[in-house]
Amino acid sequence: MIFYYIRHGEPIYDPDSLTELGTKQAKALAKRLAIYGVDKIFTSSSNRAIETAQPTCELLNIEAECLEFAHENLTWEDLSVEEDGKRTWIFNSQKYKELFCGKEIRDLGDRWYEHPELKGINCEKGINRIYDEADKFFASLGYEHERYTGKYKVTKSNDQRVALFAHQGFGLAFLSCLLDVPYPMFSTHFNVGHSGLTVIEFKEANGVAIPRMHTMSSDAHIYHEGLPLNYNNYIKF
After folding, report:
1. Residue ranges of the domains in the chain?
2. What does each C-alpha distance from 55 to 29, 61, 108, 224 come to in angstroms?
């Protein structure tokens, strides 16, 4: 199986939708995905994710299935913190970024959320919820997760291409769970851009699949269509 994780295009958060550029990004992505095709399309239940998936659904004549657990609001409740009087993602807070990079967190490994500095934050609840829902999702596709081993038992061989359109904050947690990379390491050292395409292969051997990321947050479709290459609206590559 080839699994695509796609962040929504440039958004308007209120009301939940895409900007004109975000819509162009979504159309560019659809052209790219159509080259090799997609067999199943899933989206977060948010409008900005649904609108990003729409051009691909129309081009390939596929109806998307909404996944409520992929909505970013749920992750925001558990993995955001107060900083300077404002709410922000924990991975964007300088205080917690430094904590996440420290030896104590690294030594805790998969139980990183037990660090005393994280008391009062719903990190354990949030990450375990995403693990549970992600495991159910991949089990439905034929891959039973052996949690914290980086391996999946193949219960039904699958050569499909499956796409999930969702978010940044949710995505960093979801991908860390999928790959069994502790969230503090993943969320501080990796990111996903607007309409960025992440490609993960579930290559099967002896009844086991060990997912491998081939591309993370690729914006080749944006480049191909001559759209602005402003990564998340703040840096030009």
Report:
1. 2-73+122-236
2. 8, 10, 43, 17
